[in-house]
């Protein structure tokens, strides 16, 4: 009989969960976080499944494990764990991880108020503000983001033929804007969007392929970003982001916001410096901005920033016991 204990700190970023594994994570080999992610997926994916899926987690669960940085000029390496796998990059995960790490003293920043994070998708710079011990806001400057493909034709059950754009913001997103066969997120339930998303993602991945021009370990369409009418007149846009097999992001999704800003930029709808206030399915907001214009694999892209907040809500000593028939987690 073996029992493994993980010390976790739980938070939510604008409503979406972030569980940071502060103790019990495995040592990983690799020259950078992308290689460490591959090592984790080969040998330790059971930890992700145990901590993210029921009965210790749930359909939306998401989190991270912290590692010493490869380059000592940086502050920390971050491995993202989620029901969907180990994402190359996660925006709400970054905001929650930074909030937990600073408030709980898990990282000592080299420069107060700033952090350099090594993620599997690349370097992510962060600035944060504090009031006393509390982190009030976190702004991440994300990896280069770009519109990969425009107007792809895909088939969705019930809705029929849809035109989607595919954009990269740390993960590949199919963006479904309102059109003849899709009225916008406000017209449907989360349950409907989840059921359609699974099939739409499969249909797109069966007919098209996507690979990051500089990192072949980042490939395939993982997320569907449905768009629609905003709840608040102050917001620029609203989304419902599907991830994993059963989740709609409760936050406005950091990598999704980056991907959508890259889409708007490519279509001339958003310029460098303009605020992009993105609303989630529950109405929580991130503020995005184009910080810089760049070229990625011959395509015009952007360096986006995304700003939001997180609240820490608990400590969680989680045991995974070999005798537990559900040690590896499950999903219904
Ligand atoms: O915030 O980037 C994000 C994210 C990805 C999946 C869920 N949230």
TrEMBL record:
Q: Which GO terms describe its molecular function?
A: 4-hydroxyproline epimerase activity
Transmembrane segments annotated in the record for this chain:
none
One Pfam family in the UniProt entry: Pro_racemase
EC number(s): the record gives: 5.1.1.8
Q: Which UniProt keywords apply?
A: Isomerase
Database matches in SUPFAM superfamilies = Diaminopimelate epimerase-like (SSF54506)
Which InterPro entries does the UniProt entry name for this protein? Answer: Pro_racemase_fam
What enzyme class is recorded for this protein? Answer: isomerase
Family membership, please give it.
Belongs to the proline racemase family.
Check the record and name the NCBIfam families matching this protein: PRK13971.1
Protein name as catalogued: 4-hydroxyproline epimerase
Question: From which organism does this entry originate?
Answer: Fulvivirga marina
Q: What is the lineage of its organism?
A: Bacteria, Pseudomonadati, Bacteroidota, Cytophagia, Cytophagales
């Amino acid at each position: 009989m073996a029992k493994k204990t993980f010390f976790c700190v739980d938070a939510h970023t604008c409503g979406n969960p972030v569980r940071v594994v502060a103790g019990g994570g495995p040592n990983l080999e690799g020259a950078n976080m992308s290689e460490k992610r591959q090592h984790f997926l080969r040998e330790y994916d059971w930890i992700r499944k145990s901590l993210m899926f029921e009965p210790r987690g749930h359909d939306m669960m998401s989190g991270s494990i912290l590692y010493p940085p490869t380059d000592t000029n940086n502050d920390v390496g971050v491995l993202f764990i989620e029901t969907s796998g180990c994402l190359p990059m996660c925006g709400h995960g970054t905001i929650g991880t930074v909030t937990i790490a600073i408030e709980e003293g898990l990282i000592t920043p080299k420069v107060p108020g700033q952090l350099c994070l090594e993620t599997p998708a690349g370097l992510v710079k962060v600035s944060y503000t504090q009031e006393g011990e509390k982190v009030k806001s976190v702004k991440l400057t994300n990896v280069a983001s770009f519109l990969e493909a425009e107007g792809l034709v895909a088939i969705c059950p019930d809705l029929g033929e849809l035109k989607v754009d595919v954009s990269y913001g740390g993960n590949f997103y199919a963006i479904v804007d309102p059109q003849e066969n899709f009225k916008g997120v406000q017209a449907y339930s989360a349950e409907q969007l989840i059921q359609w998303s699974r099939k739409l993602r499969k249909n797109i991945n069966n007919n098209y392929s996507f690979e990051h021009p500089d990192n072949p370990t980042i490939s395939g369409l993982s997320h569907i970003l449905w768009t629609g009418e905003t709840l608040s007149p102050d917001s620029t846009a609203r989304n419902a982001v599907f991830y994993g097999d059963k989740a709609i992001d409760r936050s406005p999704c950091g990598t999704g916001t980056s991907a959508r800003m890259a889409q708007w930029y490519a279509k001339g709808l958003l310029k460098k410096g303009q605020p992009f206030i993105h609303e989630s399915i529950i109405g929580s907001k991130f503020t995005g901005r184009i910080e810089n214009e760049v070229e990625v694999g011959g395509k015009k892209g952007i360096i986006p920033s995304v700003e939001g907040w997180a609240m820490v809500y608990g400590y969680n000593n989680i045991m995974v016991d070999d005798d537990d028939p559900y040690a590896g987690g499950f999903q219904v």
